[in-house]
Design a protein that fits this description.
single chain; 290 residues; alpha/beta; Rossmann fold; 2 domains; seven-stranded mixed beta sheet; two-stranded antiparallel ribbon; 12 helices; 11 strands; 20% strand; binds S-adenosylmethionine
Length: 290
């Protein structure tokens, strides 16, 4: 792996040469621009204007190492330690899922429909992307974020500081109703969750870089019940969701109908509907409690 000179245009050539065959042209351009923007503090849209700039040796090493890791198919966000979500910057690491664009759509649905609500609970917060975006969007929202992973909660707490919002964090296991009800205080106007929803036998269908680098605790549901988390969270709504309150789920399109049927059959909700994401896949559930 050799770079022709320390001019940025040669670094761009280097990325294209080293990464073609692994990623397509558009992906390589985006990765290169993101890396340059991150390491050299240049706005993403202005990277192309700096093609003739020269970089110093330590910058060259950082950008070169990033390319080496991309060749090994490490996700760019983990290499840079940063992901953008809902206009905010989040620290990410091996303990938290990289926030996805569909989840931004979920946040958008929640903020548009919950203007009069006060208290929010995000179950399985990971990087804190949902909870922190809600708290940042509306200073009146009082947000609690919980996760079973202590390391995910530490990352989420750092992200709250970074984005200058105050949240309450609770370490708890949503699959254990008794533990959950004692550890998460009070009840909420809105409960939102993007829980683990991939069955372990579906692991072979995941992209190799997701499988190798993203936390399995965030991805997989153990055992044969693929809607386990959705059932447990729905059951918890009996005590933790206020009357007239709203439940929002991000869904696996493959099991969306099954989740809808479970939520309706619980008898707790006066309305319950499935919503599609921008790509037309059934992706979200929205329900309002009696
Ligand atoms: C799909 S990730 C979602 C992360 C983040 N909310 C997002 O949308 O990017 C699911 C999260 O649920 C957490 N989790 C897994 N099992 C859990 C459990 N039993 N109780 C609470 N949280 C759990 C994982 O640690 C992970 O952070």
């Amino acid at each position: 792996m050799r770079v022709a000179s320390n001019q940025l245009k040669h670094m761009s050539d280097f990325y294209h040469r080293e990464l073609s065959g692994i990623y397509n042209e558009g992906e390589i351009n985006a990765m290169y621009q993101n890396a340059i923007s991150h390491y050299l503090h240049i706005p993403y849209a202005e990277v192309h204007k700096h093609a003739n700039d020269k970089i110093n040796q330590s910058e060259l090493i950082l950008i070169y190492d990033c390319c080496k890791k991309l060749r090994e198919q490490q996700p760019l966000q983990y290499i840079l330690g940063e992901a953008f979500f809902y206009g905010l910057s989040f620290n990410v690491n091996a303990h938290v899922l990289i926030p996805r664009p569909e989840t931004e759509e979920l946040v958008d649905i929640v903020v548009k429909n919950c203007t009069g609500k006060k208290t929010f609970l995000d179950i399985g917060t990971g990087s804190g992307c949902i909870a922190i975006s809600l708290a940042k969007y509306n200073k009146q929202f009082r947000v609690t974020a919980c996760d079973v992973s202590d390391q995910a909660l530490q990352t989420a707490a750092l992200n709250a500081q970074k984005n200058k919002v105050e949240l309450k964090f609770t370490e708890t296991n949503v699959l254990n109703k008794t533990e959950f009800e004692t550890q998460v205080n009070g009840s909420f106007d809105v409960i939102v969750s993007n829980p683990p929803y991939i069955k372990e036998e579906e692991a072979t269908q995941l992209l190799p870089n997701v499988m190798a680098h993203e936390p399995h605790l965030a991805l997989f549901v153990k055992g044969s019940d693929d809607i386990l988390f959705y059932r447990k969270i729905t059951d918890i709504c009996s005590t933790k969701l206020n009357s007239g309150g709203s439940l929002y789920f991000e869904l696996n399109p493959l099991t969306a109908q099954k989740v809808l049927e479970y939520v309706e059959a619980s008898g707790q909700f006066k309305t319950c509907e499935l919503l599609k994401d921008l790509s037309g896949k059934t992706r979200f559930l929205q329900a309002t409690k009696h």
